[in-house]
Design brief:
CATH superfamily of one domain: Glycosidases
Largest sheet: 5 strands, parallel
CATH architecture of one domain: Alpha-Beta Barrel
Shape: globular
CATH topology of one domain: TIM Barrel
Helix content: 25-40%
Structural class: alpha/beta
Low-confidence stretches: none
Length: about 280
């Protein structure tokens, strides 16, 4: 087949994407940590490789408990990686070369140091209490249900000050947002829009299928085929802790936001059987 001189596919349908983890890519100032200026300095090399789109892993302010996937501010730049001026310069340089830039967006959970969570855990009466998932203990005083964290152990962390558990699908330092709360949806769409208005070309959305949980918080069923060599979270099938029907309403809201801007794309990180995966398209 001849090269497609008349290729009418959209850029994301035919592009070559290159993921960059900023910390380890290129250090511009000799402090041993890769940064935004370092990425900018290597754009011509990336273009020479044939790359047409760059996916940049999180550079937001973060305590770095999970390599930046514990976000403390969705519209900021961690000083480790530079400044907002550095980001603006990177974005302009990317577009000057005819390349695209997409960002890693982490909507399922925040850092436990995010101002939203600090407010949420301050008291049961705080207006942001329901921005996260808080539950009373079970009758025996233990966790509300049997859900397991992806990184091991129970997915529930006890908060002594307010006498409830909060849910974290990953680290205890990564409390899950309550995406059944319309205020959370609005705040996160505004964060996405902040970057879209700057001109980013789209997002890779982290653990998209985790965002909505079962409203009744039912126990996940046991995996009868579990083997000791498997990760502990595989002891259960995450029937109720992931991939709930309402998640598609959230994804549609995100897609509608991107469609309000010109020519933007979104990739969802989704680990599901194919027959469930296709429902997200």
């Amino acid at each position: 087949m001849n090269s497609t001189d008349n290729d009418d596919r959209l850029w994301w349908q035919s592009g070559v994407f290159y993921q960059i983890y900023p910390r380890s890519f290129h250090d511009s100032n000799g402090d041993g940590i890769g940064d935004l200026k370092g990425i900018c300095s290597r754009l011509d090399y990336l273009r020479w490789l044939g790359v047409t789109a760059i996916w940049v892993s999180p550079f937001y302010p973060s305590p770095m408990k999970d390599f930046g996937y514990d976000v403390a501010d969705y519209t900021g730049i961690d000083p480790l990686f530079g400044t907002m001026d550095d980001f603006d310069a990177l974005l302009a340089a990317v577009h000057e070369r005819g390349l695209k830039l997409i960002l890693d967006f982490v909507p399922n959970h925040t850092s436990d140091q995010h101002p939203w969570f600090l407010e949420s855990r301050s008291s049961r009466d705080n207006p942001k209490r329901d921005w996260y998932i808080w539950k009373d203990p079970a009758e025996d005083g233990g966790p509300p249900n049997n859900w397991l964290a992806m990184f091991g152990g129970t997915a529930w962390e006890w908060d002594e000050a307010t006498g409830q558990y909060y849910y974290h699908a990953f680290l205890k330092e990564q409390p899950d947002l309550n995406w059944r709360n319309p205020q959370v949806i609005q705040a996160m769409l505004e964060a996405m829009d902040f970057w879209l208005r700057k001109g980013v070309d789209g997002f890779r959305v982290d653990v998209m299928w985790h965002m909505i949980k079962d409203a009744a918080f039912r126990d996940n069923p046991a995996n009868p085929d579990y083997q000791p060599w498997q990760a502990t979270y595989e002891q259960l099938f995450p029937v109720y802790s992931t991939d709930q029907p309402e998640v598609h309403e959230v994804v549609r809201a995100m897609r509608a936001l991107l469609d309000s801007h010109q020519d933007r794309m979104m990739i969802g990180e989704i680990y599901l059987p194919v027959h469930k995966l296709v429902t997200y398209y």
